[in-house]
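Most newcomers find our protein records easier to grasp once they have seen one. Nothing more is needed to start thinking about how sequence determines fold. Here is such a record, shown just as it appears in the course material:
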Amino acid sequence: MPTRLLLLLAAWLLALSAFAQKSLVLRSPDGQLTYRFRLTPQAPVYTVDFHGKRVVEESTLGLVFRQGGAWGAGLRVLAAQPAAVDEYYTLPVGKASRVRNHYRQLTLALQEPAGARRLVHLVVRAYDDGLAFRYEFPAQAGWAGYELTAENSSFRLAGNPTLLTLQRPNYTTSHEGFYSRLPLGQVRPDTLLDLPTLAEYPGGPYLALTEAAVRDYATLYLSPHEGVLTSRLSPLPGQTEVKVQATLPHRSPWRVLLLGQQVGRLLESNIITSLNEPPSLDFSWLKPGKSDFHWWNGDILPDTIFPPGRNFEFNQYYIDFCAAHGIDYHSVIGYGNAAWYQNDGEGYAPGPHTDVTQPVPGLDMARLGAYARSKGVGLRVWVHWQPFYAQLDKALAQFEAWGVQGMMVDFMDRDDQQMVNMQEEMLRKAAQHHIHIQFHGAAKPTGLARTYPNELTREGTLNYENNKWGPAMAPDHDLNMPFTRLLAGPTDYHLGGFRAVPPAQFRPQYTRPLMVGTRCHMLAMYVVLESYLGMVCDYPAAYEGQPGYEFIRALPTVWDETRAPLAEVAQYVCVARRKGADWYVGALTGSQARTLALKLDFLPPGQYEATLFADAPDVATAPNHLLKTTLAVSRQTTLPLALAAGGGQVLLLKKLK
């Protein structure tokens, strides 16, 4: 064991021996993050400092059980076990293909001194870019299981930071809404705040609160109560008291604090996946890629002798489009507010006899699967979660027999423990049939894509589908995504709309939806947003001969490295992603035009050919216009990025031999 680590362990043990009056301290590998823990008669408490600045004041921890009541008062520390880890792991889908997992850990065995004498382990990990903790419930005599009614983890943020957050009216939610940006002290008490929530301290740093490895547990929200952000768990269905039911041994998800002196460091962090388990199944079959999604464009079809809808010819038309344009997957959805499978419900909602294994008459799924294979295109299906889960094993076997390789599972609109467990069961069993899943109407990801890489993306945000029926998704709303929802992991945003109009000309259209924000803003969204199943949602003719479409065709969906060289909350963001030796860069602004100076010092040494797609001078009236230029650059180059109001810019940097 290295001498430095031995000294570190000795210091921790020395602190433990005098624990009655002192704190236990855990520091990050670089020493810039400090976690302090101590016991009080009422509850365990902790603080967090980052780069010499207090970010979390003394905050309480605790749990409340239906049987036995609260746990947290009068505890004693039975043991404190330190550890240090520095390792690398690979991700088949992610913003980096090889990730360093470097942290220091402290596990505290905390027990009630009398009564039930319940023993709970508090596990804390300190990274250079964040902190995580969770509760573990080891097997023990006299305590076989529990019903949790509350988790009293709290976050007393220092000062009065500005929050960027999504407020929710209740726990039954698709997590789709507009974000609020306001000081913590102005948030209405006891409001439910969705995660991730970003806190901005004057002069820095930036703190994002979220969770990781949500498995067999309820999803976490936060709520301001007497100025402190307190935990709120989504209750089990049909009641409001019990949040989690479990047998021991068991453990909670990780409560995560992402930290960075610059907000761009949060976008680069891999803590969320690092806190999840590696896969135990074989995923060598998995193929991330791009997919069409004709529902968004209104099922547009040119004049033909066959109707659009739930038939072979309509799907054949879109399969041919995918094959011709290098789009990996075609999605079988339905038509006219009716699913592709037999359904006696209203619209897409299931009825009592809905059967996802039976296509509607006239749609031969086996024939369609064979045709897609002959064109080198994968097949995906949309399903409502309820009838799919009711027939889970039968449906997956049938889908695999048809040649289906992926699914969109929709309309969950819940995130309680039961729904969390059902989603993991779907992922596990789908993997056994070599099928990937895209969850819609679902909560944020929590890094489970490391364990189940066949979870390629999730929705959980208000996105461009809203342009079909509601107010347009404005560029300022798009700009909130990287600093909130995207910190948790990939999202599907229904990208690819190629009919931008000036904001005054926007109107909702169910078919051929319109966009606000420039064409380059749309292209940049493909880079800035993380998704391993990139959507190309418009209809074929919308892309034919259109400038900028070649960038979408060339874009990968998984990455070897991700950097965020420029970022300012509510102002702009620039993300650079590497695949092999090539880099793809996307920059976004909101409603304000600006010019950014992008230093290319993230590039390795060498010469690169840069292909730039930039807003044209007339985008205020013709937002689909862009300028395409090519020039030679290196890591010494600084590029001016001129972004129009609602605009963007993208670069493809190819290394020259």
Q: What stands out?
A: The CA atoms of residues 32 and 51 lie 5 Å apart. The domain at 289-559 is CATH 3.20.20.70 (TIM Barrel). The chain is about 15% helix and 35% strand. Confidence is low (pLDDT under 50) at residues 1-21.
